[in-house]
Automatic annotation (TrEMBL):
Localization, UniProt: Plastid, Chloroplast
Entries under Pfam families matching the protein: RRM_1 (PF00076)
Record-given protein name: RRM domain-containing protein
Keyword Repeat: yes
Residue ranges occupied by any RRM domain in the UniProt entry: 44-122
GO molecular function annotation: RNA binding
Amino acid sequence: MSCIEDCNAVIENLNGKEFLGRTLRVNFSSKPKPKEPLYPETEHKLFVGNLSWSVTNEILTQAFQEYGTVVGARVLYDGETGRSRGYGFVCYSTQAEMEAAVAALNDVELEGRAMRVSLAQGKRA
């Protein structure tokens, strides 16, 4: 609706009316809740690719915490199969920690595979 008056008119005219054998309930929607991040994030975020299927969030955190305070680490999984997608993200508290991790861990083996570590890019449109 373009204005509050239109909304009120629709509610007044349709709320409680029957449509295709069902009673309509028309009202204002409640305010949407802000989306909670799936894990703690900062602007100091790394992309970690070529992960072994066995790598978990905990293993990823352990591998990266030697280079600074890991605020959050997450391996992404396929929603249908539950299998790892082979990549994840790690967030640090400072840029210096993030840069140290990239320099030290890119092409380093974790669980049998050489990780590809780089600065995370924004979401693609």
